[in-house]
Design a protein that fits this description.
alpha/beta; Rossmann fold; 10-stranded mixed sheet
């Protein structure tokens, strides 16, 4: 069974990071607003993340997921309603359920933007797992316009070459830009701007702040990361 057959341009991925129902609901509303409407969004729940999403669905606040994926070691697939696609991975695999979901999503030529909800929340308990998934996102990032990590600590956006991110932040709001390898970027609307400049790995882009205008971050070559602490 192929995951890519039912996916739309915008895909929200529900990880098993244990975020609150309220945060899940706000994440859904935020991503739907960015996309232009919930009819443009597909939902992929990953293993234990399905449990949280189905609980929210029963309250009538979100849509039924399009797919549930994973090896089902922490969520029983027997509870999945009819009409929801199921993609099961072997428990004897050398990748995480979330990386497997990203790999399958990347096969769809329709998908442009992906938002992963909850994974960085597990940083304190399993920093190795969170770091591994973040690196996997960088691997698949060139297949999309962007991959977002949305969690209670903030918003992290991975952008590949030729793509950009715009947002409106209040004056003085802190944010940072990073690159895991040498990239060329343009950053406007910030206290410290960059114009077709080289952004190297390290803290070069750490602790910038908004001027109260629209911020634009464009990646000309390589791959960039835009980070907003405390997004909500």
């Amino acid at each position: 069974m192929r995951l890519d057959r039912k996916l739309k341009e915008w895909v929200i991925v529900i990880a098993g990071g244990g975020v609150s129902p309220l945060f899940l609901e706000r994440s859904w509303e935020d991503f739907c607003k960015k996309s232009g409407g919930k009819e443009r969004v597909s939902v992929v729940a990953v293993d234990r993340g399905a449990d949280s999403w189905f609980s929210l669905f029963k309250s009538g606040k979100v849509l039924l997921p399009d797919w549930v994926v994973g090896d089902f070691d922490s969520f029983k697939k027997e509870g999945i309603p009819t009409g929801v696609g199921v993609l099961e991975f072997s428990k004897e695999k050398d990748f995480s359920d979330l990386e497997g979901a990203l790999r399958e999503i990347s096969k769809s030529p329709m998908v442009k933007r992906v938002c992963i909800v909850g994974i960085v929340t597990s940083l304190e308990k399993r920093f190795d797992h969170a770091l591994g998934v973040f690196l996997a996102a960088l691997k698949f990032c060139p297949q999309f316009e962007s991959i977002e990590f949305l969690n209670p600590e903030g918003l992290f956006i991975c952008l590949s070459q030729g793509n950009s991110y715009q947002c409106a932040l209040k004056k003085g709001v802190p944010f940072s830009v990073f690159s895991f390898f040498e990239s060329r970027v343009t950053l406007k609307g910030a206290r410290y701007e960059l114009l077709d400049a080289v952004l190297s790995p390290g803290t070069q882009g750490l602790s910038n702040e908004s001027l109260g205008e629209e911020i634009s971050f464009q990646v000309h070559s390589g791959a960039g990361i835009f980070a907003i602490p405390g997004y909500f």
